[in-house]
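Components:
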Amino acid sequence: MKDKTAIKTMIEKLKTLKSDGMYLDDFFLTWDKTDDELAAVFQVAEILRAMREANISPKVFSSGLGISNFRDNSTRTRFSFASACNLLGLEVQDLNEEQSQIAHGETVRETANMISFMADVIGIRDDMYIGKGHTYMKQVADAVQEGYDQGVLEQRPTLVNLQCDIDHPTQTMADMLHVIDHFGGVENLKGKKVAMTWAYSPSYGKPLSVPQGVIGLFTRFGMDVVLAHPEGYNVMSEVEEVAKKNAKANGGSYKRVDTMAEAFKDADIVYPKSWAPFAVMEERTKIVEHNDQAGLKELEKRCLLNNAKFKDWTCTEELMATTKDGKALYMHCLPADITGVSCKEGEVEASVFDRYIVPLYKEASYKPYIIAAMIFLARFKDPAAKLEQILEKGKKRIK
Amino acid sequence: MKDKTAIKTMIEKLKTLKSDGMYLDDFFLTWDKTDDELAAVFQVAEILRAMREANISPKVFSSGLGISNFRDNSTRTRFSFASACNLLGLEVQDLNEEQSQIAHGETVRETANMISFMADVIGIRDDMYIGKGHTYMKQVADAVQEGYDQGVLEQRPTLVNLQCDIDHPTQTMADMLHVIDHFGGVENLKGKKVAMTWAYSPSYGKPLSVPQGVIGLFTRFGMDVVLAHPEGYNVMSEVEEVAKKNAKANGGSYKRVDTMAEAFKDADIVYPKSWAPFAVMEERTKIVEHNDQAGLKELEKRCLLNNAKFKDWTCTEELMATTKDGKALYMHCLPADITGVSCKEGEVEASVFDRYIVPLYKEASYKPYIIAAMIFLARFKDPAAKLEQILEKGKKRIK
Amino acid sequence: MKDKTAIKTMIEKLKTLKSDGMYLDDFFLTWDKTDDELAAVFQVAEILRAMREANISPKVFSSGLGISNFRDNSTRTRFSFASACNLLGLEVQDLNEEQSQIAHGETVRETANMISFMADVIGIRDDMYIGKGHTYMKQVADAVQEGYDQGVLEQRPTLVNLQCDIDHPTQTMADMLHVIDHFGGVENLKGKKVAMTWAYSPSYGKPLSVPQGVIGLFTRFGMDVVLAHPEGYNVMSEVEEVAKKNAKANGGSYKRVDTMAEAFKDADIVYPKSWAPFAVMEERTKIVEHNDQAGLKELEKRCLLNNAKFKDWTCTEELMATTKDGKALYMHCLPADITGVSCKEGEVEASVFDRYIVPLYKEASYKPYIIAAMIFLARFKDPAAKLEQILEKGKKRIK
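Structure:
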């Protein structure tokens, strides 16, 4: 546990980062943000965590809503968002589209304003359809901006992407903070090899946002990022371009390989995880648009059959042994499909998963703080000054 | 944004209004309340809004529940209630009747007490069945009063009608506050013409509470209120009696006309909106009581066919041009059925709706403050003194 | 209403009770706890109630989540848990297993940690299957303990059993506190006769946790506890052993009888309530495990037929007249099956139920305070000191 002096030092470091571009802005994609801005998110997350551990309450809102809109199932992101809002003093109000009048023909613009009269943050998960999620979030953000500009809203709520079709920034930023802490600092990451690989799962249609988010973010830290997947399981080419550009700018590398073996070889970090081929996701979007239930079933069948060809894409002890010193950091966004535990054949062998269970849970534990940091940086112009003020007041979380 | 001095002046004005009858009382229907009481609701709403805009937190409850019970879908009222409770410091707990044991044969009296041990307010929407919603709310209010009198409850929660079969006071009071602000003060409303008119919608069975609420409230401000609807689409005659009585007492007028054209002619305010005929709503209640699914389908079909005869009851640019100076204030409780946007043929032309989108959103923005004001006036015997105290303390909403 | 001096005296009494074993511990079964610990729960509950009545806010958490997981329907326990959390400053976040990814194969251990990063308490209802609920709660508690020990969780959330297959401690402790207050103190309970009896209900499969909880708790106060039920409607024999042991240790008695008449004769307290035979519950668990829908229907039918043989097991005025002075305290956890009100033939005659409605509601009113006390004692090492501090500060609940 860090004491007040240690936290003060952390705040001093935050002051060296230029993050004012985040004020009143949204968080859609990590590659929209500057290096300093990402560093600020990590730094504020660590400060908020240190404060909470020291029983100091960073409750900066006396009232205000944090609105969540989960268009796909969620456990850890739902609770992370709720925890983040609660830590800062916002009350979560879930926009359950089934209980609402949205089905009755409301526009996105209208709904966005109607729920935002007292909202300081809106968190959205919309990851099911390629070409949809990010677009929807942009529409919501534009709508509340318009509402704010026109005097409809007293404050401009910040939009936090809780997973879209392109990126999953609260996940990958938590992943990255875990990596930073695991390797003892961002300065130790240069030259580390990261294997983001596809893995077999008996389910189909898992979003691409995690692999895309990982190659789009991890390439910014001078690491050698390798993406591996069977033929046809491509991710969005635009994101691969981002990864290449990042690698170039930051002194690492990005490449695609055809086997898990090649990806795992000497890797410092492995992230084996299933996803659906981009082409399938595109097709699904069209099928759903036409409400073609038979077509959807057929696609699922076809996709599962295709997946089944690649059951050997699984994270085994044997493969783990080929990583750097045989002990790469195994990562996963959870829940994982564990062979013999949650399914017959899955993404990872049970013994590998079990060995990494504590690091995996720690990886997940950063997410509430990452979300809280994103909100904090969007709502306070001078975050360091605000954090200093919280520290000085020293209000206790548990009295 | 108003400064502290301006807010102080607003509080001074509140002191001139006799609102102590609202203390520990409920809010069912606007016509239960005196003129001073309604004026106090508007005034407290404006003060709370001014405080929030000035970053002053009117959080008067350190803990306590605000219970919501939505027996029909809701977005804006749900979020308005949540916002209001949160602003004052109450935590919303939703009574979801499906997740509860109510199906197992609990009486209204029992449930009302069981959920209210720490409740300061109960908000209910029950607008689907004629003769039911208001009655149910009365039962709940009587039950908690009994519980309070018998020492079961430590406090008497206030009931706020979030829409019943008769009135929708949080909507129409927000509507009215919008009108007051739009015309620069309640003193400018005398002689203004209001057209509350039916409009075609491809859905059936919309509640009557908005048109009823509007004619029951707007007639209290010396305005000339006109209700227009096709033959058979009557509202409750009791409410028309209220409107007539109000008009007589306040120097305006109330009349019913047979065409939109006549209603819109020279109107200062137009409120075109669909609703179901009272007789249909009564029939539906009986059908539902007998759980006659076939009968319900048949009624819906019959009703939609009848509606379709009146597709020309729609708010067009042409009609708008006939209003006072061609620029009457267009109002709607939202969501509206917009021709070519949310439906093929609906209540309003897209160009009209679009032109009024900012005023419409502002209209909606008053609702959280109206609800908060209703709660405030029911929970504090001397609301002005309490508001002065909040102002003096000046606790910040965002620290 | 008690004043500060009276509350101070209550805190003094709390100091005489040794309750430090509850610190950072869970609440599964009343018979896991020492007499002092149970007395401390009652005492803290009464102090929190007295404080709230005196408008003093015992909000000890500035932030933090209270997680609820209702695997069976609930109204009063849901609202009691929400009220308790809110009173202390925790925000309720419901783990709705349908909206989550739990169906996708998460383990209990994983979910428990994922939701607990900022959780101070987890309340679980899992009462449907014999051999399951308590086991599940233990797994959750073990999982968060492990997470805490391994540094995954910053705090160890306390688990509160909101009803399992074995016990329903928040209910029976509220029941008991009602009994204590009714008879003017725990010292007046020795020798009182308690009739915990089965009663007919037209539903089947009601949990055994209430009768089991009652005989396991009430036998600790020197009372003469009698359990009556038709042949075959046994409760768990392990719990009967607990009851016998308790009776021996505390100077009362425990026995099983075959008729309501014998149980009610001269009883000071009667608790007539339906439950399913233990053997049926065991069978149901197996049927559900095999997902045998036909078997389940068949079991229900068979069970209802069997229940119907015992329609004369109902709490009549006639039976009530045979109790001590004809005015035993009638108890029920609610909702009751009331003859002629919520069902044709049920657990109790309407006139009996009506006569006891105020005491029944008061009985229920203790539950929020019992839950708050359980949380309080688990989160504060020196509860008396903390309560003294709250009293001194005197922060108002309603400002």
